[in-house]
Amino acid sequence: MDSFNNIINIPFDFRKLEYQFLPDRYFEVSKTNSLCGDIYNDKIDDGKNDLSHLNIKGWKNFAWAFYRLSPGRWLPPHVDHFENYSRFYKVDDKSKIKRTLVFLEDWKPGHVFGFDKQVILGWKANDSYTWNSDTEHWGGNFGEDLRYTLQLTGTDDS
User: All domains of the chain, ordered by start, with CATH?
Assistant: First the structure.
């Protein structure tokens, strides 16, 4: 676990963004129902907000996405396919793609995250986990409050 303490400086209230449901064929239950949460990413933002200061790892092709997971929603264990990301940034070698998940609020009862055979509870705001394309992870919201995270994605050529 890493921490983005004293680094995260988001110049807007992430709770008030215009989150959208973006279908993902891996997690859709039907055309109108999904396990997934809602997203607000740099493509939806279309340049309104510059969050490049969050790229503390120096990744190329840096992208960000705020994720809102409603109560009763969960993502089963999976590895990230990075299909849209690799197509948009023309990345052929998916093993170079990394993702960091930053928790935006302290842990609340019912919120859970699974990462590399660990169950993560009790996090603090700005705690983070980083993985690559073959790391299994999952998450859920079995509580009463929305769960907000920030996904940072990029390529690491080192």
Answer: 2-155 (2.60.120.10)
